[in-house]
Records
---
Amino acid sequence: MGKQTGFLEYERQEYGYQPACERIYHYGEFLIPLSREQVGEQGARCMDCGIPFCHQGCPVDNLIPHWNDMVYRGEWEQAITELHSTNNFPEFTGRVCPAPCEASCTLNLDDNPVAIKTIECSIVDQAWQNGLIRPQVARRRTGKRVAIVGSGPAGLACAQQLARVGHNVDVYEKADAIGGLLRYGIPDFKLEKKHIDRRIAQMRTEGVHFHTLTNVGVDIPVSQLRKQFDSVVLAGGSEEPRDLPVPGRELNGIHFAMEFLTANSKRVQGVYVPDDQFIDAHDKHVVVIGGGDTGSDCVGTSNRHGARSVTQVEILNKPPEKEDKELTWPYWPHKLNTSSSHQEGCERMWNFLTKEFVGDESGNVRAIRYAKVEWHKDEQGNWQMSEVPGTEAEMPADLVFLAMGFVHPVRAGMLAELEEKEGLQFDERGNVSGATEGEEAYKTNVEGVFAAGDMRRGQSLVVWAIREGRQCAHAVDKWLQGKTNLPR
């Protein structure tokens, strides 16, 4: 694959970034793409490693060595065909995926993996620029109708796959625009929404019907969909945020991360947001509680607002700067992740326990009282936390964003109706219960109702949602027709 000696001849090169001092003044993407020749050299670095562990690392089973070889040889049209055979939306994953495939790359044993994410993004961007991506309209219609609730990556992948085999597909979205968290949850500086809009246009041509501002279970009952459609897919995501019930939680200025990010993204995209619903971080001391990607997005957005200071805190230990390859490879390593938003300006603190939010005389948050903690394993091997005596202190905070993840799907509305009327079952974490393998894959316990993405799996990555959407489409098609040609 690629050039047998390419990994010795060419240095790893990723797409570049516009300097932080420039990009914090706008909300556009700041990637600097490689030339076709440079991408070809990166494809040449894919060595003939015998066992492509990158396949194991990629949730959608991308045929990575194949399209690496194709770009090396200048076969760009074949490359996008191969890429699309496993991934409906590589322009999404090429921008926001953390690239577990690169962690699994054989060359990562030497901290020098193939730039798979950059190559993937380059293939699909070149394909759009050169008119190589076209609608794939089904040659025949099956007459079967499928309703998909939720228009995030799982719902969209499922919808596109089912439409391409001839089913009539309707997608229902409670927001005013299609895309789920891709639309308003992920900032535009990470994913410009033109990428979603192009796919929506493609899918409309393929026969998918989209319904916005339609909250199933609230605006229309689920029972109506059950009567009108042969099958229903639950792909509404996991949106119940994890709260932090400590003294002072009721103070003004403490918000869930998505309240901040959604309102900002709407304004960036030209959607009207009243001033009383917009959260402005300008000239404020911002504290982000939670060390993941959502917290990082709050950091980047706060910097663009012109925050006076931005601090991101995490209750866990600081991860190591570098993983132990002999213990972790080819699996995803536990190590420090520094995002482009962190590079734009942010203080980071670990072992941080929020004890209380402190308010002023007007009921606004003004500080966080915290203490440092340490972690140790008990006799059963479970991690236990203890507070370090004498470490209690206060940190100024005019705005606090809770970015500690999501616990499970929202139960009110659709899921509550299905539970009450049809006995829909949930797993121990509160997600819709459903397997991923065998004859019952992606089926709920309710006949004809399937579940995919974060609503079934729990909070996860965009690439996992695409995988589940595609595999759910396979299961739905087989259930409707008794057989299927859709890939898993």
Note: The first strand starts at residue 16 and ends at 17.
---
Amino acid sequence: MTIATDEVTPLLGLVASNDSSDRPIVAIIGGGFTGAALAYHLAERLAADAVRIVVYEPRATLGAGLAYGTDDPVHRINVPAARMTLVPDDDEHFQRWLVETGALADDLQANTADGHVFARRSAFGRYVAAQLQPFIAAGRIEHRRIRAEAAIPARGGGWYIDAEDGSRFTADVMVLATTHPSPAAPAALDHALAGHPRYIADATVPGALSKIRPQDRVLVLGAGLTAADVIAALDAVDHQGPITAVSRRGLRSRGHNLAPQDPFGEFVTPPARSARALLRRIRNTLAEAQAAGVTWHAVFDRLRAQGGEIWRALPPVERRRLVRFLRPYWDVHRFRIAPQVEGAIDRRVAEGTLAFHAASVREVRCAVENDEIAVTFRRRHGLGTFEGRYDAVVVTTGPDHRSILSSQPLFAGLAAAGLLQADPAGLGVEVDHNSRVVRTDGETAQTLYVAGPLARGTFGELMGLPQVTEHAVFVAERIALTVRALKGHPGRATGIV
């Protein structure tokens, strides 16, 4: 994809930096992996005197974010290290860094029996930070360790960005690269358990599971990657009580087949025009793969690689249908768990201390005298109800994408002003084919971009790290064109005001 000349020309009248080096300013909101990757690739593409890159991120380092900032040793990257990289053309960049830095010296469980490396997530966070450090040390990337609270259009173009400390910063280009919204617990659960000492509404909060006692009966709501992490983390600290994982469909995250096999199938020539047709093609391809002695993993690897094209070929109504009915099945096959985590789950199931159910919460009661939680569930497909009694409840239902516009003050302010809207599929923010925000009036915000998973309503598969990296490169290239257009056309962006 490219930006046509007539799309860049109007930018020449927008704000540009009038600091001593006349550098346009790009402000990136969010310094987790997405924001860090964008800053890195933007710095790689533009000379030091061509742009000023400022990243708003309250955490101490750039690159870790929520996903890779965890210090729990059980939390592992869910794909082999050889497939994780900040550099798209160098698949083994991260794995070489692990070897060169000795980062695995204290992680004796990282290597599987067949030679694959599933490193801790914290190691990948340190790797990304290490790649950015030379740019930070040279002043090429500036880390503003503070949260951006609001943004409004600047006079003549660009953006005024207000931080939580009351400071105001002016930038020519702003990029939203923030994390997903927090999970949303069922309303009945949230109301009944407010204030309960072992009700954990967000399992991603550091130390959240420390409240759970070794013999507690634990209910985990959700059965995806976060649920798998929770179960493995409890197992690692010798939790012995029964764990019940409940989700609407009762699906478990799947593991890997690490034996070499090429992606299998073809889904874009011609592309499916409906969710039903796509499902039919997937089922047929899975049958063909099985007949050829190929596992389902290879079929989903092909689906992942062609995900963007598949998504763009679907009309909006079919995208919504796919998200509503098929996304849970996609998630458990696409986002696989590390063998170490899978082993812990399989062992608990075999021991009878872990069970999965397909159901939804119907009623919640809490005993005042002993904090015991009684939950009545409605089985899937109307197959009656059942009740369970628990000492702790952990919500792992995944990001509540419906609340994206209200998930943080900056988004809420932009939405209230008509400068931001949810995408029609309900996955994030609506953007155009260049990842620029589409306002509520249908016009494109020329200098407001979205990088990473929040743009997947337009781009499709943007949850896996390789796709997020590729999208960061894509957005960096679009912004580089914008910056080159701004260079030499003085305007307003001067930084702190």
Note: The chain has a mean pLDDT of 89.
---
Amino acid sequence: MVTALPGREPLLRALIDICGPDFAREAAAPDMVAGHLASFVAAPATTRAVRDTMRLAAERGLAVVPRGSGSKIDWGAPPQGIDLLLDTRRLDGIWDHDAEAMTAQIGTGTPVRAVQAALALRGQRLAVDPPSAQATIGGMLAVNESGPLRHRYGSPAAQADRISYVDIEGMPAESDGEHGRPGIAEVAGVIVSAAVRLQPLPAARRWVNVPVATPLQVHDVVEATLAQRLSPSAIEVDLPVPAGSRTAMQPSGALAVLLEGDAAEANERARRLATVLGSVATVTPTAPRWWGRYPFGREDVALRIAVPIADLHAAVYALRDVAGMAVPVRGSAGMGTVHAVLPGSLPPERVEGILDAVRGVLLARGGRCVVVAAPPPISTTVAMAGRRDLF
């Protein structure tokens, strides 16, 4: 149902005046957010246009939701209402690249893949690999979406020196967590650009792959890997549910370790680790098919579990025991942060019961479990992750 707003035509004309005739319109079916249909969509192309759009929204009391590619638009707590979708994709491009200082300022609407392709021409990269294939810089930072490289380089938020944004009143502001300015998690408004630190593009990448069957075995392999002090860029695990079996309590899986550097060094480090991990370990120049991908789909309940790595196996066992079924798990075994999947067909009260029990187990271990995404009615019944839960 379209939000009832007074003076829809004057509002639309004002948005067109700010963004241009082809870049402001009434919302349509593809502009749904967690079951809510926006009234308008506006795509400003400059910081000034974002500022004017946000000021107009504040004056008229419009609820604004920023959108980049929309790959994570349904993550977290659903909005109470939405009047205006502010499309950031025209705020794109690498606005300033200092190759010598290894820094860049990047527009919020720029696809991460486009950034990496451009930087690779200069032998550099932004050390992030968000699993959302269409992720933009702003969308990645807004929810701190991290892929395997977080193990070595930290989260996207940790690699941003400064975030420029327009607040909900239409005022330009900056965020870096220093000098009294808020950190990225506290940004309330629309991100316009980010000043980020870059890394050299590695000449070679090698994956050491080991089959694993249980969470406890994952724990042992991670311990053995970290003990070698080989500076892995990532340590990821995949524990799927075998096809056709939601009852198997010990699904087979895999653990993979990424080593990067020049070719000779990467090969030697991979060889050393494979020797330590035994004859089942293999070395490949390409990632496993599951690497850097989420284990959940739009109809699943996606959980994010973060716990000290020594207790990750206990957390996974606890989740399976409480759920009474095999639960797919994938993520950073080297950091103790993984995603787990529950069926979206479960009743909301059942999901809530599972969460309460698992959180009780994690509390004693200094861990936490949040619901990142879920289909209605679960997303409107169960407490969903807030932005601070993702940082």
Note: The CA atoms of residues 10 and 16 lie 10 Å apart.
---
Amino acid sequence: MATSYDLLVVGSGGGGSVAARRCNDAGWSVAQIDNRPFGGTCAQRGCDPKKVLVGAAHAVDQATRLHGHGLTAPPAIDWNDLMAFKRSFTEPVSEARERALDKAGIDAYHGTARFVNEHTLHVGNDTLEGEHIVLATGMHPFPLSFEGADLLTTSDEFLEIDALPDEIIFVGGGYISMEFAHIARRAGASVRIIQRENHLLPPFDADCTDRLAEASRELGMHIHLNTDAVRINETDEGNLAVTTRRPDGAEHTYTADLAIHGAGRVPNIEALDLKTGNVDAGRGGITVNEYLQSPTNPRVYAAGDVADTPGLPLTPLSGQESHIVADNLLGDTPHAATYGLQPSAAFTLPPLATVGLTVEEAEGRDVRIIENDLSGWYSYRRIQADTAYAKVLVDAETDAIVGAHLVGEQAPELINLFTLAIRHEMTPADIKDTTFAYPTHGSDLQYMV
């Protein structure tokens, strides 16, 4: 016999939890379902634990650069201690989330949800009917079809390893590979990156990523661009042999103790049996209209990384979409999702950040491009940071700042200031006329524009 609810929410991250909480607060009966520990990717397997590891790597990086400039022997990362510190953030999450659900009166179900008709889900031994259904199942690693791809370690698994291997190969050159590679290198591992494209971190400005690549190589990383991983085998010695191929057909094999999947992620929809639920989906995820509603099954909504929308796979946007879903479930007037500025950062060392128009997107538009090599500026010299660069795009007609692309210390914080500037159509003159606390990275904005 089925148990009925006003709302079924599949997924317990930001994309589902906001809608679950708001509808519950409005008096709806709500069930939330997850086949993994409750709390979602960001808090347990993504942004938050990664940033804990980055914090230690950053401390080692700064101390290393200042060695001989006032500091003696730099510290080293103790991987076991660092992982224990990381777990102090991640391990309480699931239990705390389930306590909160219980206190709120939201029923929690553990298991994989799949449609049995347009309004019913099967979860383990339970059958749940929903007047409305929100799908927020996030993403998972892109399936790779070459021989031995199953030998790759996922980012989730990397965040749980108790001992850091001596040699690591990363397949892919995006966020996961680059952020984890910089952590691993600062912790003493030898790192090799296999990237099929001609530059790293493709969403970011190429001049920024080229500088990051140079800094990474100077750190001792081996970076192979325009190179595909085509085969992985276990060796007699117990490590992995990763065979690569370049466009000219030349193959080369590299060995390592660990090979990590960093070749992108895709919407996590396979287990849902969307066809049975009459829910359309494509490569970009679940098909939704401007109200984040399935056109083929209007009782179903999708939010976060699993939805095929213009939003980037970023935690704040998942939460914003979940708010839109809640607005549309609870309100009389539909609210369309809108996507404005989407600042993004890669927490490499040094980090990258971007917001607004890229040079490619501005093609055909009259813009001024203001570039500055910041490495000789005081803010960077005082910490011996030799990689720092800013590119700012200004609309030639309105004189408003329309894009910013940064690499260097505090880039993720500075991009937030540029986001405000672009949103409020500020001009370089507006920035120059603003008094900032000095000397800070923020006060450098006056000279970047």
Note: The two ends are 65 Å apart (CA to CA).
